[in-house]
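Students often ask why inverse folding is considered easier than folding. One informal answer: many sequences map to the same fold, so there is more than one right answer. In these notes we will look at a single instance of the problem. The structure comes first.
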């Protein structure tokens, strides 16, 4: 039988990739588990090569020291030619060679895992990388029409690599002038050379270069040539270009857009903190308002207008790896619309009208308006709400001020309200009109007990001097909810809401209160009142029991008040003996051969425990004397035909025989 071909080796290696983590290593901490976490950022699903590589990016495969990407978009905006030049320097190059050597060890222990990287392994590297990159995420999205910021149900990373359109080359992964280079036996034919994956302390990877020059002789250089397909861009007169910069640093992207008359950048956003999920359609929550993102300034760009009418966007993103899984998205809005006259900022329909009462759940220093959920949605401005100066003033005793995240906080008293007057102004000095609101705690929420009862009662006590409110009270836990009731809060007297709580599962239960009223900003808060739903033990009953020859069995029914799963066990005279069969809400013991037990009374006990650890039990006394009365002279050895059934745990000899038979059965199945 001849040696496997290179294609056979490559097939096996690709399979290994599917089961392995990508081979980018964190520069600051090179532990393997850190690399696995970064892969999970993009899904890390199993399955085919396409499915596995389709959940990662180029940076997951290669952590480079720095890289330049040149992306030239075609005249029809349907494709883009991509050229990349990346350097893997210092110990990152050592890690790259080490990882590939470890892959080779999985493929052939005689050829890999020896601390050396060969030209054979290099060829696998080239073939595998090109095949995998073809399916990776591009990080890039285009969509024409009005400016957008992604969000639930919007997949804005709508570009992909064209099939068979990816080529990758390397330089110096096997340095030809390495001081420790040696020959090796090739499995794919041709001359074979190998070098240590980690060089000695002199790091002399190029004997033709003087060590005095202090050149990184062990570095690796990568080149990528690829064609990218673009969808979602039929009209380039108005579009949003986006780049996911999560876990990305040390790179520069030069995007060249073909000539479009009067095309210009109208706005851009550096959006921080999006939770990078496994599925863009469910990750990140509501999309931020256009122009509202508060960037950390880590990413930068420059735009050049060329004489032929094309535009170059020189972009240097920096989504710090240590910030993962909090991501960073960059959005650039382009348009051909001319720059209009300055437009004053305005209030939106979502903003609270003048004179609105704004409820908060607790007194003290509290953020009563968040930037993303509240303030950024209260204003509109042609240059983006993020460029506005939002000013809120109140009595100095209440310390009304803007937070570092551009929310608004105040020191809210236990009773009474804080009057706050707010407005917004733009860079041209235009401002909105003032609006005054009243901030306070409208009511307190308490529970009659920290143990959830059914029905359960919640008390709401008004703080007084508030407009009439209608409150909806809901029990919540881990996606499960049950409404207790709806009540009106009309004066300072407490109101009691009592309702069914049977849907709650054992464990902590929170109370959600949604309140509204005339001239009252909608209030929605979840209170932790330390309420616990205690588990109730399952109910177990015996339906029937009896003899069948020498065998005795019993069955019955069960239910759990909390709907939890119930696990059963059985004991005979206090010793675990056999397994209980469960079907639906019925249980059955095995057939117990009581001829094997001593003559007399025996207790068969059935124990059922739910997943909360609450248990119930039933038992039955069994007298096997009748078996011995029928067979007065029991033989020393039991006939094979009588050896079926459950064995007594007290008989060591019979237990050994049982284990031996079990072993035979297992080998028979094998």
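Output (designed amino acids):
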């Amino acid at each position: 039988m001849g040696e496997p071909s290179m294609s056979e080796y490559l097939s096996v290696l690709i399979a290994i990739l599917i089961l392995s983590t990508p081979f980018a290593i964190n520069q600051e901490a090179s532990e393997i588990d850190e690399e696995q976490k970064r892969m999970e950022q993009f899904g890390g699903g199993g399955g085919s090569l396409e499915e596995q590589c389709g959940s990662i990016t180029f940076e997951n495969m290669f952590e480079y020291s720095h890289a330049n990407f040149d992306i030239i978009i075609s005249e029809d905006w349907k494709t883009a030619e991509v050229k990349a030049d990346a350097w893997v320097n210092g110990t990152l190059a050592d890690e790259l060679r080490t990882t590939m050597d470890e892959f080779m060890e999985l493929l052939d222990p005689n050829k890999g895992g020896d601390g050396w990287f060969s030209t054979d392994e290099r060829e696998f590297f080239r073939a595998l990388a090109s095949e995998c990159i073809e399916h990776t995420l591009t990080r890039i999205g285009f969509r024409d029409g009005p400016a957008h910021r992604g969000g639930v149900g919007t997949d804005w990373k709508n570009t992909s690599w064209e099939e068979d359109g990816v080529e990758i080359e390397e330089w110096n992964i096997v340095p030809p002038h390495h001081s420790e280079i040696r020959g090796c036996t090739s499995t794919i034919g041709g001359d074979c050379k190998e070098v240590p994956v980690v060089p000695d302390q002199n790091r002399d990877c190029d004997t033709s270069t003087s060590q005095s020059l202090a050149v990184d002789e062990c570095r690796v250089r990568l080149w990528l040539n690829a064609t990218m397909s673009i969808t979602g861009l039929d009209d380039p007169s108005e579009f949003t270009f986006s780049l996911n910069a999560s876990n990305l640093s040390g790179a520069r992207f030069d995007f060249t857009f073909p000539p479009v008359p009067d095309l210009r950048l109208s706005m851009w956003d550096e959006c921080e903190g999006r939770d990078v999920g496994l599925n863009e359609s469910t990750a990140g929550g509501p999309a931020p308002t256009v122009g509202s993102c508060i960037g950390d300034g880590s990413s930068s760009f420059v735009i050049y207008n060329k004489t032929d009418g094309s535009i170059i966007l020189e972009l240097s993103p920096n989504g710090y790896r240590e910030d993962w899984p909090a991501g960073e998205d960059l959005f650039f809005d382009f348009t051909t619309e001319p720059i209009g006259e300055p437009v004053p900022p305005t209030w939106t329909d979502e903003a609270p009208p003048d004179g609105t009462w704004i409820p908060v759940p607790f007194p003290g220093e509290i953020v009563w308006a968040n930037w993303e959920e509240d303030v950024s949605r209260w204003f509109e401005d042609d240059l983006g709400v993020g460029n506005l100066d939002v000013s809120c003033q109140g009595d100095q005793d209440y310390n009304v001020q803007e937070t570092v995240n551009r929310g608004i906080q105040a020191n809210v008293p236990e009773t009474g309200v804080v009057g706050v007057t707010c407005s917004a102004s733009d860079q041209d000095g235009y401002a909105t009109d003032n609006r005054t609101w009243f901030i306070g705690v409208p009511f307190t929420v308490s529970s009659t007990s920290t143990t959830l009862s059914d029905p359960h009662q919640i008390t709401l006590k008004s703080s007084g001097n508030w407009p009439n409110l209608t409150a909806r009270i809901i029990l919540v836990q881990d996606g499960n909810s049950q409404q207790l009731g709806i009540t009106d809060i009309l004066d300072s007297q407490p109101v009691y809401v009592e309702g069914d709580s049977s849907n709650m599962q054992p464990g902590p239960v929170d109370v959600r209160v949604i309140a509204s009223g005339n001239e009252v900003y909608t209030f929605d808060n979840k209170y932790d009142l330390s309420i616990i739903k205690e588990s109730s033990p399952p109910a177990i009953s015996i339906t029937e029991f009896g003899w069948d020859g020498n065998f005795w069995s019993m069955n019955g029914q069960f239910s759990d008040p909390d709907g939890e799963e119930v696990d059963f066990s059985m004991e005979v005279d206090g010793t675990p003996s056999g397994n209980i069969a469960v079907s639906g809400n019925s249980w059955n013991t095995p057939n117990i051969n009581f001829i094997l037990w001593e003559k007399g009374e025996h207790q068969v006990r059935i124990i059922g425990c739910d997943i909360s650890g609450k248990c119930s039990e039933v038992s039955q006394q069994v007298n096997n004397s009748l078996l011995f009365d029928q067979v007065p002279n029991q033989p020393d050895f039991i006939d094979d035909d009588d050896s079926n059934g459950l064995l007594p745990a007290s008989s060591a000899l019979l237990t050994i025989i049982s284990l031996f038979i079990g072993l035979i059965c297992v080998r028979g199945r094998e």
